[in-house]
Amino acid sequence: GRLLAAAAVACPHLAGLHLYRAGADDFKKGCEEMKNESHSVCQRMQILKTLLPTCCVLRVFCAPALWYHMAERGDFAGGLQSAPAVAWIMLWSVPFCLLNQIVLMRGFRNVLSSYDTLAEWPEHISLNRPYHGLASTRCHAANGGFYAELFWNCWIIYQDSNVAGRLAGISIPLIIFNVGMLLGGPVNFLVRKPKTDRWVAETYLLVSLFAVEGLLLLNHAGFGISAAVEPGALHGVFGPYHHWSVWLWNVLLVAQTLITRYAVTNAEELKAGPPWNAGGCDHKEFFFPRFWGLIYICYSMLASFNLWVLGNYVWASDASSVVVA
After folding, report:
1. DSSP 3-state assignment of 278?
2. Burial, 241: exposed, middle or buried (Cβ in 10 Å; 0-12, 13-18, 19+)?
3. Tell me: the pLDDT tens digits for 57-99?
4. How do residues 177-234 score in pLDDT, each as one tens digit?
5. Helix, strand or coil for residue 46?
6. How many beta carbons lie within 10 A of that of residue 230, not counting itself?
7. How far is 211 from 254, CA to CA, in rounded Å?
């Protein structure tokens, strides 16, 4: 059960790292065009392209020990003496620091402003557009994944053996990624006052607002997903899927995914590739990746939620068996 839950925690971060991989490849392509692919930043980004997902997968196998010592037993000292728990801490902190050496550089550090990014871009890393935006936006997606994973693990430890409270932890990546992608994508596009494809961004905002509010309600209300994993429900034939809230959660997320995908694939100018303006708005490379980024996050959240519910169902069932015994 804990291993399934750990895989659920990793899913949204892996989606962010998938986006980072595309950004690192674009950055390398831009460096090759300027004949400076041997630059240290380019080389570090290529190394991190492999290192970050490898560490993320390894953390899946270390997280159960972290939770066992710090959440279930409340033994923080014991956790710091457990090799897997210490390994989790190292596998999170070292890649996080290495990535933030790049994210906090001038140019990269501007999350939403394309103008500040281009104005502050280091002269020794010469690039042509659109590679500044394609790289920096994806780096922040990976960084958001680190924060989501950290806060989610802290939430699990804080909730201890409270199954209902622990289940609500999936709200953390849901909020972080939706807020980040919507602000950086649709909102960033709308504030530029586009002449076409305005409806695409408005659809993203309306659908996501409705879907995420519904998901948060199901996460935290007593009649929501916590009812699917409560002790009295542990012997259902279909496990947590006997409860309507689990199906509704999936339906809301699938609806958000399909509607936003339909909107962006039917845009007139808001499409991948040149020209790097859309609807009369320049710097498309800074807001368009986040339109598709949200869709990839939705894919990962669908896998994450089902692993999370199943993992907590088995985890709670095992705990209940121990108590009975």
Report:
1. strand
2. middle
3. 999 999 998 888 877 777 777 778 889 889 999 999 999 999 9
4. 999 999 999 999 999 999 989 999 999 999 999 999 999 999 998 888 888 887 655 5
5. helix
6. 15
7. 9
Residue among 174, 156, 154, 176 at smallest CA distance from 165: 156
Residue 237 has pLDDT above 70, yes or no: no
Place of tokens 């339906």: 251
- Is the Cα torsion angle 68, 74, 75, 81 positive or negative in sign? positive
What is the largest distance, in Å, between two alpha-carbon atoms of the chain?
68
Backbone angles phi, psi at 287, to 5 degrees: -115, -30
The string of pLDDT tens digits covering residues 130-175 is 888 888 899 999 999 999 999 999 999 888 778 888 899 999 999 9
How many residues in the chain? 325
CB atoms within 10 A of CB 56: 23
Give the C-alpha separation, 184 to 250, whole Å: 25
Residue at 138: amino acid letter:
R
Q: Give the separation between CA 58 and CA 36, rounded to whole angstroms.
A: 33
Write the burial class of residue 195 (CB in 10 Å: 0-12 exposed, 13-18 middle, 19+ buried). exposed
Which has the closest alpha carbon to 102: 145, 139, 142, 149? 139
The reported pLDDT for the residue numbered 141 is: 93
Q: How many CB atoms lie within 10 A of CB 93?
A: 12
